[in-house]
What we know:
Low-confidence stretches of chain B: 254-264
Distance between the termini of chain C: 48 Å
CATH class of the largest domain in chain C: Mainly Alpha
Strand order of the largest sheet of chain C: 1-2
Distance between the termini of chain B: 36 Å
Mean pLDDT of chain B: 86
CATH topology of the largest domain in chain C: MetI-like fold
Helix content of chain B: 25-40%
Order of helices and strands of chain C: EEHHHHHHHHHHH
Helix content of chain C: over 70%
Number of strands of chain C: 2
Strand content of chain C: under 5%
Mean pLDDT of chain C: 87
Shape of chain B: globular
Number of domains of chain C: 2
Structural class of chain B: alpha/beta
CATH superfamily of the largest domain in chain C: MetI-like
Strand order of the largest sheet of chain B: 6-7-8-3-9-10
Shape of chain C: flat
Oligomer: heterotrimer
Radius of gyration of chain C: 27 Å
Number of helices of chain B: 10
Amino acid sequence: MSHRELDDMLGKGWRKPxxxxxxxxxxxxxxGFFAYLIAAFMTIDVDWGRVYEGLDRGWxxxxxxxxxxxxxRWSDIWxxxxxxxxxxxxxxxxxxxxxxxIGLGAARNIAPLPVYMICRGIVAIxxxxxxxxxxxxLVAIFGFGPLAGFLTLSFATIGFLSKxxxxxxxxxxxVQAEAIKASGARWPxxxxxxxxxxxxxxxxxLSMYRIDINFRESAILGLVGAGGIGxxxxxxxxxxxxxxxxxxxILIIGIVMALEYLSGIIRARVQ
Amino acid sequence: MLRLQKLTKTYKTGDxxxxxxxxxxxxxxxxxxxxxxxxxxSTMIRCINRLxxxxxxxxxxxxVDLTKLGSGALRKARREMGMIFxxxxxVERLTxxxxxxxxxxxxxxxxxxxxxxxPQSDVDExxxxxxxxxxxxxxxxxxxxxSGGQRQRVGICRALIQNPKLLLVDEPTASLDPKTSRQIxxxxxxxxxxxxxxxxxxxxxxxxxxxxxxxxVGLRFGEIVYDGLPTGLTPEKLTEIYGEEDWEATIEKxxxxxxxxxxx
Amino acid sequence: MPVLEQNDTQIWRRRTTGQSLVRxxxxxxxxxxxxxxxxxxxxxxxxxxxxxxxxxxxxxxxRATPPKWDYITxxxxxxxxxxxxxxxxxxxxxxxxxxxxxxxxRNTTPSTLFIRPIALLIIVSTRSINSLIWALLLxxxxxxxxxxxVIAIAIRSIGFCAKLLYEAIEEIDHTQVExxxxxxxxxxxxxxxxxxxxxxxxxxxxxxxRWDINIRESTVLGLVGAGGIGxxxxxxxxxxxxxxxSLILIVILVAVLISEWVSAKVRGAII
Lengths: 271, 264, 271
């Protein structure tokens, strides 16, 4: 029986079974994709002359990285950088402190339904709105300066951290938490002994990661007047002072790398 | 056909995995390589097709020293040696057919293999081999849908479609249950007989080795301490290879197994 | 176990006196840093505006509602541009990220000493700098427009995609690669048969994940002049056309939700 099957197959070609089984659907998907690509390319008007002219400036910028100018605008760079760091630190502290109760509330296995709905709502709003748009609105409301940036970053931290914390709590080991409950612990004791030890390492790791993100974001808030190094950077670009811009970018990259290194060490220690 | 001359491997850590191994495997002979974990069995097999680079010594396949080949010639030489792995080592996200055909990679060009347009003779041979191991109906299944025994059969097909002279088999049964282990061992030895292939089967199950192969080589701390018939593996010899242990049970078990085998 | 001797009775404590002192000092330092940061922010804030904020927020709210619905007819092209910036940017980024990832992964890099550090530098530097800053830079070089937006998104995404991809490459099952090598396959065949099938699911996941993020980022690129719906947002903000602003924000919100939904669906289908 199986040999007859073999004889049928011998001499026939073999093709790999396609990922999308239905041939018509497959071709529609492929053609649709290429049609979209072509349409998309057609609608980008590139002024190639302008691009060609720009190549010189681009090259000048690349060269600027070999001789960054930290000195001539150092006071501007320093005050912008300090403002960025201060916003990052303050917003991370406040954001993390607020996101812990909200994260607890957004975990279905420990929060009652009404609390859960409210906390999930806060998380959803915070995640859907981008930092820069929040910053624009807050600048309009509170005026220019680092306060708007600080509030923006705190708000964004809440959405990011609460969601991941809640997911972590929902995925925790139930037995450990039940064992603590069985000992007759009150709710806060239960959280402290049954839940906290399980989620703490990840919370620390995520917080470090968020500090890193907050610093990167703080570098652009200045573009809309919410304080930080972004304003200095924008000015440097406007004046075509590439060497100063290069210096600022190098500082940002350096600080991000240092933060990543630091968070690697801290994460390794808590785990 | 295959000759190892003073084959030595010293790892960067300073561990000497192989100490000047001399071994000769004639055409068509199946031999089992036994020894405790860390004796250098895996290293030896991998030094033969240079998945592990030997430190010194020679590997002569039909009088060509593999250790001296450049990368192109080495690829040609590797086609002569099919390899079967412990954890099957199938590419799990490819289909059974693709896995079998990947044995032909040394023969077809890059674009042909990339577009999966293998010559018809290769496709037919793949069908024949799959039929031989009883997996023809699985040809278009993805490899990770198969059971352990089925995967190892696909692994065997992949090695055989290379049309090799020699099979290098690394613990083929280590992750299989006892019954499947025997089926796989029988399949390998049968196929070697059918095709006149030599094979080096690296195996830790002494009883299984004794059951299926005519020659056993014992390895201990990177040195050959036994080379002869499976019947010559006395408790003293096994103690020399593996260390002190009560070996009577193992050897008796072999006899019992053979009875069961006969009864089946 | 730290135990305190007091009146001949042993009292168990969690930490020794030295440890508690260090901990208290750490907390004190943390609080001091936070207070300093807060003072800094407070000093550069005009508190009069802040106290006035509820009134201003209320004022903006009344001006912004109801949104100017018929303005949506003018948003078709900007939305199309935004989609293109995100999609083309992602595609270009993936094309660049694949070689970078292979050069950066420990098990595929041709040279750990020279090429790997360069690849890692590309990853870190493109990742640390926000796409808005890249846009700012590109606008200074090649002029404003959609093209600058596409390139900005592409550059920003290279590091992100390459980092996730090279981590996936480092985690592959080595024996599968060994098995393909043992058949006598060439270097490229080993890549195509041994490595690529193993990282393909990760690659698809990363692509969709980044596309989702890029939709968000491309909605605001227009704020610095790099095309897309952000241009309309910035123009409307400049003339304080709040009903238009609120409509644009709603459109952005919907776009973000749709892209999140699509990416979740596609990821679910792949894995």
